[in-house]
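Q: Got a minute? One more chain.
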Amino acid sequence: MTTRRRFFKTALVTAAGAAGLNRLSAAEEKTLVQVDRRRLGRVQTPVSVIGLGLGSAFTGPWNEKRDDGMALLNLALDHGVNYWDTARGYGPSEEIISPVVEKRRREIFLVTKSRSRDYDGFMRDVETSLRTLRTDHIDLMHIWNLPANANLDEIEGGALKAVAKLKDEKVIGAHGVSGHSGAAILVDAIKRLDPDVVLTVFPCTRDDEGRYEDEVLPLARERNMGVAAMKMVRRARNADLKGSDLIRYALGLNGVHCGVVGLDTEGHLRENLAMATNFKPLTPAEQASLHQKATEALAHVPTPWERPGYQDGLPA
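A: Always. Here it is, folded:
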């Protein structure tokens, strides 16, 4: 019987023009400063301390200027930013990045997501992502966006069984869970679904009364899980706070391996490259000071992902 992995391989579509992407020569690549990397917990793969967030911050400016978007992706990869975070639900994200993925697949730790909780739906999502991304494997597949009332029984009997099969067939390398609806559901999901990686929020305002830091992180460390931080700078767009400091706050937490940042402009990318090269975390005193300043500045600013109808990766 033809295996699912072989089916995925034969189903890939090669797009015209992918070979025309601009690349640096081998000699030029060697001269580029590379961002720091950390091993992603039990996954063991070294990943860049900053990851590319390829949701609305990326698709918004670059969907209509795809050549420029691909140039930005190549620039990030040339500097060693290998953690790429996309999702089927991020509009055209997977499609936009696919020419670069196809050409430079071995250099990328590719992360995508499925919102399906059942076996067949999860399998279909993986098939679609593989075709769209022009690859035969995904390094990390998240069970995406667990709400506070997530039905973990359904996931255990459905998507998690798909995960086991796909891992066995080497179609996905690792599985994760993501969410920003409170630490409690993530703690339960870690205990019941045993993910390799968790993706959640670590803003310096210490959301959910600090439970992400005080409960999720210690459990992740205990289980040698990979941890990726998101939403580090989202709310702080409304306050006079330095974005790189907010990212440094999260990356300085014990157990956080990578911070996912939206890829919106070349200027922001270059600032993040500089911050992530020879990375220096905030001191404990700097962390405390930033927490106090941000908490006061954002006291009356709503948290976007707590609004009704919010969908991760799309404009709020």
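A: Confidence is low (pLDDT under 50) at residues 6-22.
Q: Perfect, thanks.
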